[in-house]
Specification:
Elements: E1 2-6, H1 21-31, E2 38-40, H2 48-62, E3 66-70, H3 73-77, H4 82-98, E4 102-106, H5 116-133, E5 136-138, H6 152-155, H7 168-183
Length: 184
């Protein structure tokens, strides 16, 4: 059992149900004949504090072998403390590992208008937490979609935050290599 605990990027915000990267993950597992079921425990708007407060219940209910943590973007958008975000992510990784799950931490980046220092510290905290707890890491969920050279109008909804259905396979392609390593 793989549980994804995320925010709107994983909760299919603004797109048809069943078309998000988490649903596509289940299809890929089935195609590759990997016997794993995926539960999407993502909530649009969730922060690391919200994820931390509900993680124990999710773990108890589903008893996953793997947990994908895709949280932190809303912390940055709200200007929350980086140390709080790091503490929450660290606590979630430890909690999931203590429950017997292998953890994949999914990183996010913030737009350049937040300033280079904040942006670098924010993106770096995912790698730091993953390294400290020997968790898997996807450095940037939106690689190839929201970084240099990407075409924002092609993949993003009009709010320029959330992604269209067309972007979902690319998101899965960013997550899959690291998740597959943990599934072995």
């Amino acid at each position: 059992m793989i549980v994804v605990v995320g925010d709107s990027m994983s909760a299919e915000y603004g797109i048809r149900r069943g078309t998000g990267w988490v649903a596509l993950l289940q299809q890929r597992l089935d195609r590759e004949k990997l016997a794993a079921r995926v539960v999407n425990a993502s909530i649009s708007g969730d922060t690391t504090s919200g994820g931390r407060s509900r993680l124990a219940g999710v773990l108890k209910q589903h008893k996953p072998t793997h947990v994908v943590l895709e949280l932190g973007g809303n912390d940055a958008l709200r200007g929350l403390s980086l140390s709080m975000t790091e503490d929450n992510l660290s606590a979630m990784v430890k909690t999931a590992q203590a429950a017997g799950a292998r953890v994949l931490l999914v990183g996010m980046q913030v737009p350049p208008n937040y300033g280079a220092d904040y942006a670098n510290r924010f993106s770096g905290l995912f790698a730091k937490v993953a390294r400290e707890h020997r968790a898997g890491l996807v450095p940037f969920l939106l690689k190839g979609l929201a970084d240099d050279g990407a075409e924002p109008t092609k993949y993003f909804l009009p709010d320029r935050i959330h992604l269209k259905e067309e972007a979902q396979p690319r998101i899965l392609d960013n997550v899959w290599p690291e998740l597959k390593k943990l599934l072995k």
